[in-house]
């Protein structure tokens, strides 16, 4: 016996097809639509480089849909933390409760897209300055999908180039010509970057850094500094000259290790190769 499909569902699918073209998938069982899935981005007039968040919406149709509410799943959220995903779920629930008996998929897509457009900012912090991304911040998405304030990224790239030049300066002439050429790298994953630093530099500093109170050395910080120096390893006493082991010289050690190529030594504030990200 052929299963008939509610005319309202057919109409809804046709409308989705007209609006979304190929941007959605229908899972069916014996010709009966069971679920509709679509990847949703914020509205940015199709400018992909301005899309920082996305989520896959899956709407599972109940056997008597639209007489009962479908089940809604949000999968693979990008740039959204759990709190934001829960907020989308809450908005969806409110919509479903108010519209039982009506086809709802397109409206759910609009709710999610509207939400993503409103919070089209990566959630979390810029790992360079540790300030959150807030409205008004100018930030950059790298090809490796890491986000930084453009201002902070420019500072990072300027400093890494300066560090490279200083290290190069320390080498004897014959080694300089063999040194690996400078490359911009992502501060998180070291993926190679190609940014125009002078353009990034024009971005304003992070909004939160402008509003932050000026730095003050508080008693709490003094205590933290004192306790961190208290756990430093004790200074090594000079060994007797008869010892076969060379006496360690912690303060000079960095300059004495043989040159092994750029990017192979741990740089200050950087993750060691192989260390967890
Ligand atoms: Zn920053
Ligand atoms: Zn990266």
Automatic annotation (TrEMBL):
Q: Identify the SUPFAM superfamilies for this entry.
A: RING/U-box, UBC-like
Q: Which GO terms describe its molecular function?
A: ubiquitin protein ligase activity; zinc ion binding
User: Listed GO cellular component terms?
Assistant: nucleus
Q: Which InterPro entries match?
A: RNF25 (IPR039133), RWD_dom (IPR006575), UBQ-conjugating_enzyme/RWD (IPR016135), Znf_RING (IPR001841), Znf_RING/FYVE/PHD (IPR013083)
In Gene Ontology terms, what is a biological process of this protein?
Answer: regulation of protein metabolic process
Query: Could you tell me which PROSITE patterns the record lists for this protein?
Result: RWD (PS50908), ZF_RING_2 (PS50089)
Q: Which UniProt keywords apply?
A: Metal-binding, Zinc, Zinc-finger
Q: Which Gene3D superfamilies match?
A: Ubiquitin Conjugating Enzyme, Zinc/RING finger domain, C3HC4 (zinc finger)
What is the name attached to this protein's record? Jg11260 protein
From which source organism is this entry?
Answer: Pararge aegeria aegeria
